Structures are given as C-alpha cells and as structure tokens.
Amino acid sequence: MTTITIYHNPKCGTSRNTLAMIRNSGLEPEVIEYLKAPPDRATLVALIAATGEPVINAVRTKEAIFSELQLDAPGVTDAQLIDAMLQHPILINRPIVVTPLGTRLCRPSEQVLDILPAPQRGAFTKEDGEVVINAQGQRV
C-alpha cells in the first residue's frame, strides 16, 4: 500500500483542493492537521529539506505574526524561522505532501499531481471553479 501524508489545514482552500486531488487518484492519505498536531523540530527540518526549497518558502509570510516577530528583518536565520514555525504553527506554509515520489509544498494545489503515484480517476475542479483534470483524468 502506498503511503501518502498531507500536512493539512482544513480551513485552507489550497489544502482542501490538494487533499481532494489525492483522493481523486484513489488513494487515502494520512492527514495530519498540523495546527492540532504540529511537527517536532526534526520532522519540520526534514520536511523542508525534502522539498528542496529554502526555509523561507515554508513560512507563511502574510500572517500577521510574521511581521510582529520581525521575521522579515535582515539577518533572520533559517534556525530562527524554524523556531518561529515551531512556536507558531500557523506560520507553516501548507499543504506539505509526502509521497514515495517526493515531498512538495503544494502551492498551487495542482503541484501534488507531480508526486502522486497513481493517476487521477476522473475530472477535478478546484473550489474556485478552475478545472484542473478533465473527464479522462488528464491534466488540463
């Protein structure tokens, strides 16, 4: 059985769309609501490293707490950003998806399609009405 994990916030449309695309491939992921069960330091560091992206890409820079903590100041280190995400999980950008094919911050949500081990089983339209997958299961 293929293991897929999504670090999910059910209040986030991008996260909901990503979860729905995973399920549209016929797979049921492990859903971790990271605001209720935040990752520990080792897990967060490993997730970010696995994406191949800089730490700052894993931070929600538009959250008010980002500015309040002055995380946009010159010289803020990756370690400080990680500390802030651990103390304030709302700062963790989402959704992060882990599959056997890779780990990705799925913004936009259709980025998940590149790492799913199974094809889409049918049409998929995002919550905003954007068609992503046609009736034949192909990316639009």
Automatic annotation (TrEMBL):
The cross-references to PROSITE patterns, in alphabetical order and at most eight, read: ARSC (PS51353)
Keywords in alphabetical order: Arsenical resistance, Oxidoreductase
What EC number(s) are associated with this protein in UniProt? 1.20.4.1
Recorded GO molecular functions are: arsenate reductase (glutaredoxin) activity
Reaction(s) this enzyme catalyzes, per UniProt: [glutaredoxin]-dithiol + arsenate + glutathione + H(+) = glutathionyl-S-S-[glutaredoxin] + arsenite + H2O
The cross-references to CDD domains, in alphabetical order and at most eight, read: ArsC_ArsC
The record's PANTHER family line, in alphabetical order, gives: ARSENATE REDUCTASE, ARSENATE REDUCTASE-RELATED
What family is reported?
Belongs to the ArsC family.
Q: Which NCBIfam families match?
A: arsC (TIGR00014)
Q: What is this protein called?
A: Arsenate reductase
Origin species, per record, is Acidovorax facilis
Protein encoded by which gene: arsC
